[in-house]
Amino acid sequence: MTHDPMQGRSDGIGALLDFSFSRFLTPSLVKIIYALVFVLMGIGWLIMVVSGFSQGGFKGGLMALIFGTLVMFVYLLMMRVSLELMIVIFRLGDDTKRLVALEEAKQRGGA
C-alpha cells in the first residue's frame, strides 16, 4: 500500500492535488462561488439603477429599481438552487459510498 501525503488534507489544495479524484474540490468552493455571484449581482444591480436614474429620469430609475431587484432575486435564486443541487449530488455520492462500505463490512462479518 502506498502512502499518500495528501490523504489527510481535505482543503482545496489537497483536493486539487488529488489525482485519484477521491476528494472533490467543488463542495469547498460553493460558498466562494455564491458569495462572488452575490457581490457581482449587487454591483450590476447598482450600476443598472444608477444608469436608470441618470438616463431615464425618475421613471427610468424607478423601473430599473423595481425590475432590477426582481431580476437580481430570480438570478440569485437560480444560482442558489443550482449550487444546492450540486452539493446534493456530491452528498448522494458520499452517502452511497458509506452504504456500500457498511454492506461490505456486514458481508465480511457474516461470512
Task: Describe how the helices and strands are arranged.
Blueprint: H1 12-16, H2 26-110
Q: Total number of helical segments?
A: 2
Portion in beta strands: under 5%
| Chain-averaged pLDDT | 85
Count of discrete structural domains: 1
Percent helix, as a range, is over 70%
> Unreliable stretches, pLDDT < 50, 5 or more residues?
1-9
The run of helices and strands is HH
Number of strands: 0
Question: What is the C-alpha radius of gyration, as a whole number of Å?
Answer: 23 Å
Largest sheet: none
Structural class: mainly alpha
How far is it from the N-terminal to the C-terminal residue, by CA? Answer: 25 Å
Shape: elongated
Summarize the model shown.
This protein is mainly α and 111 residues long. It is built from 2 helices and no strands.
Main attributes?
111 residues, mainly alpha, disordered N terminus
Describe this structure in words.
The model is unreliable at 1-9 (pLDDT under 50). The protein is mostly helical. The two termini are 25 Å apart. It has helices spanning 12-16, 26-110. It is elongated. It is built from 2 helices and no strands. The protein has one domain. It is 81% helix and 0% strand. The longest helix is centred in the middle third of the chain and has 85 residues, at 26-110.
